[in-house]
Design brief:
alpha+beta; Rhopdopsin 7-helix transmembrane proteins; Beta-Lactamase; 13% strand; elongated
């Protein structure tokens, strides 16, 4: 097997790994927050990038039109992948902001240039198709992908600094991922970028290098130990808000339990559950487009009610400050664990909160943090 045979096979392997990562996101129910959504789309488009590469490398020698199409789809998928990776790293350590959508506008502009003027043709060499890019457009693409990649590296360095203060063991993983990502960006621009700009007859590796990023991602974000990078980030982000109270409610509006931070004014628990249920019913009744959807948050002044729903129950946290994706992830994980423990009780709910197990421990988790070693 020579280098050209590898170029025909490795993109398909890379695609499989990225699609497995996307499948894991869906299987683990990690599709509810902006962070999870951006990571899911980054995995999907990285898989598509590799798939189109494989189709480009294996296109029939007489099918130039198909080769042109797959070449354009490959380059477009690479651009979109870099966009979602940038958005993922931004939101993972910060929070979603409207200004981030400006990156999507820039990306659409670059994609228009690619499809209108980017690919001048394809040539056959060494048994593989090779793209011939418009030099000016390809330079714009390189600048776009390079800028997004540099932004991702900066965000990964910020992530490493956050994790380093919480756990040296976790910091070794983030440091390794940062080094791998930076090296792949440099090598990618030095191979795919340079060979495309110089119109070389040497086949570029394209998405083959992304296989290394996929492996580093699995090692970094899916550790076998109980320590999680997302937990370290959440604890760092918790400085932006102060949780005042937490409430667990059954789907019929019955309050199962509540917990308030010591020193906070205790509200009428039954009134809270009934009022929240009324607000949700009012929104669904008044706005038909919202039917089938649940309330996500309510803001009043500096206070926000953050709501996460599972199959039978929903959890509400009252906080002062800015909510984060990592807080929502914690809420949903705790809620799913609670429903798993109380599956039989909730399936035949009789309106008796004492029958549910672990309510107080779950609600107290928002006020007591164990150190992350």
């Amino acid at each position: 097997m020579d280098i050209y045979d590898l170029l025909r096979v490795l993109p398909l392997t890379s695609a499989a790994v990225w699609f497995v990562l996307a499948g894991l996101q869906v299987y683990r129910d990690r599709i509810h927050t902006w962070t999870e959504t951006f990571f899911l789309f980054a995995c999907i488009f990285a898989g598509l990038y590799a798939t189109w590469d494989w189709l480009f490398f294996t296109a029939n020698a007489n099918d130039e039109g198909f080769a042109r199409f797959t070449g354009l789809m490959s380059l477009s998928s690479a651009i979109v992948t870099s966009l979602f990776l940038l958005l993922f790293t931004l939101v993972y350590i910060d929070r979603m902001r409207r200004v981030y959508w400006s990156f999507a506008i820039v990306t659409f502009g670059v994609l228009f240039l690619v499809w209108a003027y980017g690919l001048e043709g394809v040539i056959r060499g060494n048994g593989l198709w090779l793209p011939v890019f418009n030099e000016a457009v390809f330079l714009i693409v390189l600048v776009c992908i390079g800028a997004y990649s540099v932004g991702g590296i900066v965000n990964l360095y910020r992530l490493h600094k956050i994790v380093r203060t919480a756990s040296p063991q976790l910091a070794r993983r983030t440091q390794g991922f940062l080094i791998v990502f930076a090296l792949i960006v440099i090598l990618g621009l030095g191979t795919n970028g340079a060979l495309g700009a110089l119109r070389s007859n040497i086949p570029p590796p394209f998405s083959t290098l992304s296989l290394v990023i996929a492996g580093a991602t699995i090692y970094t974000l899916y550790p076998g130990s109980r320590q999680r990078i997302s937990e370290a980030v959440r604890r760092f982000q918790s400085r932006r808000y102060s949780i005042k109270a937490s409430f667990l409610t059954f789907e019929d509006g019955t309050l199962i339990g509540s917990k308030a931070r010591p020193g906070e004014t205790v509200i009428d628990q039954d009134l809270f559950g009934a009022t929240l249920d009324v607000i949700q019913n009012f929104m669904r009744t008044s706005f038909p487009i919202l039917r089938g959807k649940s309330l996500s948050s309510i803001s009043h002044g500096t206070y926000t009610l953050v709501v996460e729903r599972a199959r039978h129950t929903y959890l509400t946290v009252v906080l002062e400050g800015e909510e984060t994706d990592q807080l929502r992830r914690q809420m949903r994980d705790l809620l799913l664990d609670f429903e798993t423990t109380n599956r039989a009780v909730l399936a035949q709910w009789r309106g008796m909160p004492a029958e549910a197990k672990g309510t107080d421990d779950m609600l107290s988790a928002f006020f007591a943090e164990a150190p992350l070693l």
